[in-house]
Amino acid sequence: MLAVLIVTLLILLFLTVPIFAALALSALVVFAVYFPGQGMDLMLAQSMVKSCDSFPLMAIPFFMLVGTLMSKGGLAKKLVDIAEAFTGNSAGGLGTAAIVASMLFAAISGSGPATAAAIGGIMIPAMVKQGYGKEYSASLLAAGSTIGPVIPPSIPMIMFAVTIGCSTTTLFMAGVIPGILMGVGLIVYNKWISKKNNYRGEELSEEKSSKAKTIKEGIWALLMPVIVLGGIYTGVFTPTESAVVGVVYSLIVSRFIYKTLTWQGLKESLVDAAITSATIMILFGGANTFGRILTLGDIPSTIASGILSVTSSKIVIMILINLILLVVGMFIDTNSSVILFAPIVVPLLTQLGYHEIFIGVMMVVNLCIGMLTPPLGPNLFITMRIGGVSLEKTLPSALATIAILYIVLAVMIVFPELVLCLPRLLGMI
After folding, report:
1. What tens digit of pLDDT does each residue of 42-88 get?
2. Exposure string over 249-268, b if 16+ CB within 10 A, otherwise e
3. In degrees to the nearest 10, what's the CA dihedral of 317, 170, 64, 53?
């Protein structure tokens, strides 16, 4: 069964069939071969629809809408201004501001590509204008945007939680420290490169350098992550409800306080969020049918037993799994990979004593780095397009940032309590 499933899936992907269709069709083939005349086709259709009927999944379209509204409504620019005011014109100051702004935006949108487009569109031209290399600027913003799905809220974490059946809020809390470590790692790297190449911003105007004035003007934008995340962690509302609160808040602030959101911008925000959300939901439905096959064939347990029969070394197995995820992340988007591999990886690593929350964060961090890594690398290609640079010239600096992020991942794996300490402190696990 496993061989038929995998071979069919690979053939369909090779024929450039969209991944959601490839997953569903490969499941249909297995149903036809191994369960003929048992009404499995009806069960398959019902499974696709029912899988999307989930309250936690409702958060996805709303978080996507929050991201587009902040971008179109100018709230993202306010976050950039705040970050820039605190970094000043020091060596690498503007690069540091770009990373900090990416982290702030990430704490609202939960999407890597959204962060790359919103912050990259603002910061890359500014960095180039102040003397930063185009290729370096594009690679740094691409790396910064990978933090988007790690710092909560996170769409891939929602997908993991729904697939495995664990707490979304606990996953969110566990992602805080890894996301901060990724940001700190990139800031240190940016400082070193900037001193080496003398990347130094221009003297800020008195108005722009005034921290108090900048914070006062951007306070409404800065309150967004506080309200969204604070509401989740204090139990005032669920992650799904927080997404709705974020939409309402961003609409009010951008339309009536800053008055920067036009009706055309609102229309574009709704369309962009609808298209992206529909894509994710269709993907989840197709992946769920694939998962049903895995469950029916007891494939996750079979794979776990097979690996454990070869080696019982936690180190070897963890390295092997991360290498597989590394390769997968280069070719398949993060959400698809989470849905496909979580049912396989979680049973295996839980047998070795790893907590499912740690496994979820580790998977998301690893696969998110894949969003920076060609040939898929959507974050990198978005920032390259903004900067007007080629892959050949950008790849060396991109590989350096990838190395930094993998060092952070390695630290997480060696010290799992870095991931679990906040949830433990709050009594979530």
Report:
1. 666 666 666 666 677 777 788 878 878 887 888 878 877 877 777 76
2. bbbebbbeebeebeeebbee
3. 90
Measured between alpha carbons, how far is 412 from 115 in angstroms, rounded to an integer?
23
Beta bridge partners of 91: 200
Residue 418: other Cβ atoms inside 10 A: 18
Backbone φ/ψ region at 274: left (φ over 0), alpha (ψ -120 to 50), beta: alpha
Q: What is the pLDDT of residues 19-46, one digit of tens each?
A: 777 777 777 787 777 766 655 566 666 6
Residue ranges per structural domain of the chain: 57-261+297-425
Q: Which of 147, 151, 140, 145 is nearest to 96 (CA)?
A: 140
| Gap between the terminal Cα atoms of the chain | 37
CA atoms lying within 13 Å on the CB side of residue 405: 29
Please enumerate in sequence order all residues whose Cβ is within 8 A of that of 96, keeping only pairs 6 or more positions apart, or say none: 83, 87, 90, 187, 190, 191
Say if residues 136 and 92 touch (Cβ distance below 8 Å): no
Nearest in space to 82 (alpha carbons), one of 215, 257, 177, 227: 215
- CA distances (Å), 210 to each of 60, 215, 320, 399, in order? 37, 9, 50, 36
d(CA 290, CA 328): 17
- Burial code (b: 16+ CB inside 10 Å, e: under 16) for 211-247 equals eeebeebbebbbebbebbbebbbeeeebbbbbbbbbb
Q: Are 374 and 391 in contact (CB under 8 A)?
A: yes
- Report DSSP letters for 358-421, one per residue: HHHHHHHHHHHHHTTSTTT-HHHHHHHHHHT--HHHHHHHHHHHHHHHHHHHHHHHH-THHHHH
- Give the SS3 label for residue 15: coil
How do residues 195-219 score in pLDDT, each as one tens digit?
A: 888 876 555 555 555 677 777 888 8
Q: Assign 2 a pLDDT band (cuts: 50, 70, 90).
A: low
